Amino acid sequence: MTVSIIYAMLALGGMGLLLGVGLGIAAIKFKVETDPRLPLVRDALPGANCGGCGFAGCDAFADAIIKGEAKPNGCPVGGNESARKIGEVMGISVEEQARKCAFIRCAGCESKSNFRYDYKGMTSCPSLMQLAGGGSKACVYGCLGGGTCLLQCKFGAISMVDGIAVIDNEKCTACGMCAAACPKSLIQLVPHDSKTRVACHSNDAGKATRVNCKVGCIGCKLCEKNCKFDAVHVKDFLATIDYEKCTQCGACAAKCPSKCIISV
User: Fold this and answer.
1) Which of 25, 157, 181, 226 can pair with 172 through a Cys bridge, CB separation 3.0 to 4.6 Å?
2) Is 7 a member of any domain?
3) Each residue's pLDDT expressed in tens, for the chain with a length of 264 residues
């Protein structure tokens, strides 16, 4: 009995030794060389894994930078600080980019908007979009108030106030996840330093907008006529601001009769 046990132990030990040698050889033969810069680039990123760079996460983005498939300044969360560190690792100069933040182009809260019917039920934005008329709010372009953008934000930058989403400029990292989640494409990335913004996304004619919302753009063009810098234009009954030309003088906001142009 003792001899049998010894033989069994020797057999198992031999098999283990052979398997170990085989695994060692395989590890050497199939070893994948890793660029030593990869962990350094990864450490320069914030680790938010938000997808704002266009990749699955920080690891994928770092790998793309090493392979030349992504720009070092492509992380909106890390901003210029991360880009500078990555540039040092890669041995290249990286152009600084102006900080951005998300902005919800709707000020039609519950106290300022009209509703076609009263709805009680599921409140996610995709669910509300399936209701008659694309939701109970009279303005089909307005914020649904379901908070889908809030659930997507990893930085606590969005809150719901009086039935619409509101973004905290200082907490926002411009990752763009909220913009991608909004079924009405209401959320736009704008320069963080921009103080004058159009809080409306409606293309309805002025008369219809007045009926639907107290703070909707009526396409009157007073903003366009009073801008001395050619920064404001009205198309399809909606004012838009060219931030490259805008000087933040506030003349357009002062002349807007519906107060849909706001000073942040």
Assistant:
1) 157
2) no
3) 566 777 667 677 777 777 777 677 766 665 556 789 999 999 999 999 988 899 999 999 999 999 999 999 999 999 999 999 999 999 999 989 899 999 999 999 999 999 999 998 888 999 999 999 889 999 999 999 999 999 999 999 999 999 999 999 999 999 999 999 999 999 999 999 999 999 999 999 999 999 999 999 999 999 999 999 999 999 999 999 999 999 999 999 999 999 999 988
Provide the number of structural domains found in the chain. 3
Residues 212 and 242 reside in one and the same domain = yes
Answer yes or no: are the C-beta atoms of 22 and 47 closer than 8 Å. no
Q: Cβ neighbours of residue 224 under 8 Å, at least 6 residues apart?
A: 232, 233, 234, 239, 252
Decide which of 192, 224, 243 is a domain's last residue: 192
**CATH of residue 42:** 1.10.15.40
Residue 26 lies in a domain: no
The answer to whether the CB of 169 falls within 8 A of the CB of 189 is no
Residue 248 in domain: yes
Q: Is the pTM of this model over 0.90?
A: no
